[in-house]
Amino acid sequence: MRKLIYGMNLTLDGYISAPGDDIGWSVPSDELFQFWSDQLQATDLSLYGRKLWQTMSSYWPTGDQQPNATPAVIEFARRWRDMSKVVFSSTIDKVDWNTRLVTGDAVAEITRLKAEDGGPMDIGGATLAGAAMRAGLIDEYVLATAPVLVGGGTPFFTALDNWVNLNLVETRTFPGGVILTKYETRR
To answer: What is the pLDDT of residue 102?
Structure first.
């Protein structure tokens, strides 16, 4: 059975984007960027909701070809482009770059994917991750909390039907005051 990991950068008040989908507050240090790149390298399959997919696919397919691309950006872009991805959406009809589109029941498909043999999967996108949280499918949460308050926007956590008890498994400090916390779901 695969592990499902939900991890993103978020504000201290719990948002992954500020109003208007503004993520300008979320400029990772080189060290934090490398952490996320290493996480990507260790991931067998990435699951995306439509909005995050559109954000990622608007830059990373050619991120390594940008004139100001650092070696870390080049490495991340290649990893992202080459890895297997699944996008869950009923409003788009085409995906590229090693990606499969699922238009049906996301929870049923994530449950099926978790039951397969293979390495870890990550999930991104607040709506998609929220559905997986409510279904009890998330095994690990990775929060890179930035010292900024934005007062609203897209929350990292959505409303839940039941409590989710967690065990803290790691904390780490990054430049700029970003605190990484990693939790496993207590089952």
So the answer is: 95
